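STRUCTURE:
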């Protein structure tokens, strides 16, 4: 029986990844996944963070990164550790190609500890980590508190490649109606709605159930909530830290939402994520840097 964690601000479930980031043919090993980028960003906000993950037992020592960041973690053994090779060209860090490196498999109900949390985030890297049955289970456990990164239901491995695939209308409703906070990017929004306009796509997704829909894109980040749409641009001076942008944005937004309204939270999210994109790895700067950027660029 897994021990219970009490008084957590944010809990995140997803694979801890051992990735490769290649820019202009130069490769570098890096950790990845929402539990990594989002978890550490949440910890930097001063939040109590708990993560649930799967990976090879031999790789468990790599999880000491969470100990160093005061993050409680629950690790379940798997045959493989997940990983993706992210391939970029420096002149356009917005778009990338992928190569799979490993997949840690599906989570089970038995691997989910009882966590008393203000927000529970499903942050899968690929489809197959969380199935519809487990999503239903989590939606009941964390009713009113559930967040979802949709890539975990529409981004999959096929013929040793990673690609997006369409959901049926029934699948769309089954998945999206169960969450309160939905995160996606423009490519995923287009797959789900066939609409290129970010605000229009977000509002259409609101109608399926989520109260707040966060969409990251090349120019910045949008949120649609209570029939209102807000946007703030990125203000980063470089994009070498592009990997992990969505995970950082989602958790920094949700973490801020604990005490702030949607517009204030999105401004904070845009500033923090902009700074994160200027260097590889998770956000690790003092919050004074975020507040300084807000005053300089978002006032």
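SEQUENCE:
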């Amino acid at each position: 029986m897994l021990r219970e964690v009490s008084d957590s601000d944010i809990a995140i479930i997803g694979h801890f990844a051992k990735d490769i980031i290649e820019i202009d043919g130069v490769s570098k090993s890096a950790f990845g996944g929402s539990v990594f980028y989002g978890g550490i960003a949440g910890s930097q906000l001063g939040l109590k963070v708990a993560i649930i993950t799967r990976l090879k037992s031999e790789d468990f020592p790599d999880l000491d990164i969470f100990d160093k960041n005061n993050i409680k973690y629950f690790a379940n053994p798997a045959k493989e550790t997940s990983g993706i090779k992210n391939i970029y060209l420096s002149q356009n860090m917005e778009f990338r190609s992928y190569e799979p490196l490993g997949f840690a498999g599906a989570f089970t109900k038995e691997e989910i500890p009882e966590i008393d949390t203000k927000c529970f985030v499903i942050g899968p890297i690929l489809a197959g980590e969380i199935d519809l049955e487990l999503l239903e289970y989590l939606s009941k456990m964390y009713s009113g508190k559930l967040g979802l990164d949709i890539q975990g239901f529409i981004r999959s491995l096929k013929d040793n490649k990673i690609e997006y695939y369409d959901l049926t209308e029934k699948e769309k409703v089954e998945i999206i109606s169960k969450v309160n906070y939905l995160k996606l990017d423009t490519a995923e929004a287009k797959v789900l709605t066939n609409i290129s306009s970010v605000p229009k796509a977000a509002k259409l997704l609101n109608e399926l159930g989520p109260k707040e829909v966060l969409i990251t894109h090349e120019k910045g980040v949008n949120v649609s909530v209570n029939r209102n749409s807000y946007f703030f641009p990125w203000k980063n001076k470089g994009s070498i830290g592009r990997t992990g942008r969505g995970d950082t944005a989602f958790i920094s937004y949700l973490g801020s939402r604990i005490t702030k309204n949607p517009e204030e939270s999105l401004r904070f999210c845009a500033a923090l994520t902009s700074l994160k994109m200027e260097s590889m790895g998770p956000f690790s700067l003092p919050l004074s840097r975020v507040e300084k950027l807000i005053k300089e660029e978002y006032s």
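REMARK: The mean pLDDT is 93.
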